[in-house]
Write a structure and sequence with these properties.
Layout (H helix, E strand, L loop, with lengths): L51 H14 L4 E5 L2 H13 L2 E9 L2 E8 L1 E2 L3 E2 L4 E3 L8 E2 L13 E6 L2 E4 H7 L3 E7 L1
Antiparallel strand pairs: 1-3, 2-3, 4-5, 6-10, 7-10, 8-9, 8-10
Amino acid sequence: MQSLRAHKRIYAKIRIMPDMFQRACIPRRDTGSNKSKLVNEKRGEEMSITDSLADNLTIIRNASRAKHQKTDLVASRLTEEVLKILKKQGFISNYKKISDGARSTLRVYLKFVAEDRPAIRDLKRISKPSRRVYVKSDKIPIVLQGLGIAILSTSNGVLSNKEARKQKVGGEVLCYVW
């Protein structure tokens, strides 16, 4: 414990007090609002993701810009359908589903053109959980004057904008890829 002697530069009447009153306050319950947790401590599980497609598109975008040959995504049926379209349109080389017990991942092999330029220049999420975007069959968007594609979720499944126009179905615009 510190002594209660006066400090040299302070008046003799004022004394430096030790931290005696630190525990005197009423303890409050920790709300945890100043902490961010990615893993549920009780069960050891990851917390739920609101928009898994947007997260997976961001992972693909970052991997292609960093010139990675492959990347792993959290598996979902919607993401797998989007990857089928990207492979069919020539934006990715291949993908495969890797299952390890309860959890599945999708390994995506990215495609590069001349001089290590990625085939995917950019991905943009259009319809979000906070704002859904729907189009009729005659209003399906054309991305970069036909150089890119729009991916739609329709009543006939997940389709590219060209396939949706052929089948004359509208739906929710998931993303643009160019």
